[in-house]
Each structure stands twice: as structure tokens, then as C-alpha cells.
Amino acid sequence: MKAGSPAPRFMRWRNTVWLAAAVLFLLNFLRHGIDLFSIALTAIIVALGFAVEHVETQTQRPLKNYLRVALGSFALALVLIAMPLLMGGGIWVGLILWTGLSGAALAWCVHYERTEPR
Tens-digit pLDDT profile for the chain (118 aa)? Predict the structure, then answer.
């Protein structure tokens, strides 16, 4: 095993998660049909999954923690801003929550990187 490669246990867990996601997407397509929205949503979620996998396996601190905050903020924006907007609801509460939570995560990351040894 290479020095930077993930452990075999982690690889099995990661492959199981990807397989479960593929089965869930397939079931969703079979049940609701294929349309542009479901294809775009699937592409976004798969890209987010690959981005998380890349950050966890290929990056080092301090960049890793900042990228984790960025990916978490993006996922939170999907839930708190994009989803209510698509459902026809107001986005102000979601926007306020997203701003506060993302700002708090970024503040924690900056504080953590300044105080913890590498």
C-alpha cells in the first residue's frame, strides 16, 4: 500500500456508499421518471461526492479544513436556499441560517488553523 493511499477498510466503506447511492438514484429514476431536474440534481450530488472524496484523500492541512468548510457550505446552501426556492417558498430564513452557519464554520476553521499545531 502506498504512503498516501487510504486504508483498505476505508476503501470498502467508500465503495459501499457509492453503490448504495447508485441504487437509490436508480430507484428514484424508476419511480419518478427521468427529467432535467432529476438529472441535474444527480449530477450535483455526484460531483459533490467526488469533491468530498478528493478532499479527504488528496489534500493536506490547512487546505483540507478550508475545503471541508467550503463543501459543507455548498451542501448547506443546497438545502437551505436552493430547495426552498425550487419549492416556491421564501429564502430569507434559509439565507440567514446559511450565512450564519457558514460564517461560524469559517471562523472556527480560521481559529483552529491558527491555534492547532500541524
Answer: 454 555 666 667 777 877 888 888 888 788 877 878 777 887 888 888 888 888 888 888 888 889 999 999 999 998 888 888 878 888 888 899 999 999 999 999 999 888 877 7
Strand, coil or helix: 4: coil
Give Rg (Cα) of the chain: 17
Gap between the Cα atoms of 18 and 15, Å rounded: 5
The DSSP call for residue 61 is T
| Residue 4, all three cell numbers | 498516501
Instruction: Annotate 70-91 with DSSP letters as a single string.
Output: HHHHHHHHIIIIIHHHHTT---
Taking the whole predicted model, whether its pTM rises above 0.90 is answered as no
